[in-house]
Amino acid sequence: MSTRRGPGQYVRAHTTDIMLPAALVVLIIIGLVLFPSFRSVTNFFNILTFSSVLLIVAIGETFVVLGRAADLTVGSMVGLSGAILAVLSTTMPAVPAVALSIIIGTLIGALQGIIITKVRISFLIVTLGLYSILRSQVQVLLGGQSQNVDISWLQTLSNGYVGIVPNLVIIALVVFVVATLVLRGTGFGRALYAVGASPETARLAGIPVARVVIISFAISAFAASVAGILTVGTLGSAQTTAGSGMELVALSAVLLGGTRFSGGYGSATRTLVGVLFLGVLNSLLYAAGISSFWQGTASGLVLILAVALDRTRKD
């Protein structure tokens, strides 16, 4: 039996590829059987709403991981885009302020890709360095404290519903569908898989490897910036702690879903399953009365597990 690894490439299916969906089903069954609060419709939509912003960030991260790298700045970018919006919204109309905040974030992501590909510095060093810089700039822009951002249409977009479905869930699904179409049906998607599978082979085949990597980082930053703007809309303010720790959670979701850290194999669908697993896990911890302080421990353990599973997947 074989599974697709990018256009024109196949690898043997591995039992770990079905472990996460099975584990997700088991978690849901445990929740339904043991915790009455877990069975409520409200809890169901709470899980989806919690997962929506994370899914947007994680899908952007998926593009980078497919290209054989990782973006450790996405959490800081969530906070930075919100902080930029808070500053810009005091001097210009809301729509251009939102657009400019996202554009600035996307350009920073592209800059990361340029440094990595042109200066040839490890993505780990570049993204760790930018992680610290961006988180510092959030504090600088906000003066070390939260700042109210009163944009009514953004708050409606972030907190509103279409029927009983939260707008955030719809936005996240749109991002998921667009990402799936890009990865499966465009030349860029095919090039990204090829670069992740073997950068040197891709280069010899005429694929502009550097450009593909730069675009993947720009996409990741764009997604994180959108998530940051939606976070501001949800809270009605820009927070200095917005996005803190999200880089690890997003990477956990990507790797746990089955996208390989070695690049060239994975999909937005796999990331969706990883995000839902983390959302259900956090809901179960809450239903069981376990302190939210343990969520970081759970996320860290899941990240280690995800990398361990990634190591067991062999072509």
From TrEMBL:
It is a multi-pass membrane protein. It is found in: Cell membrane. The keyword Transmembrane applies. Its main location: membrane. It holds the Pfam family BPD_transp_2. The complex is composed of two ATP-binding proteins (LsrA), two transmembrane proteins (LsrC and LsrD) and a solute-binding protein (LsrB). This is Autoinducer 2 import system permease protein LsrC. It comes from Microbacterium candidum.
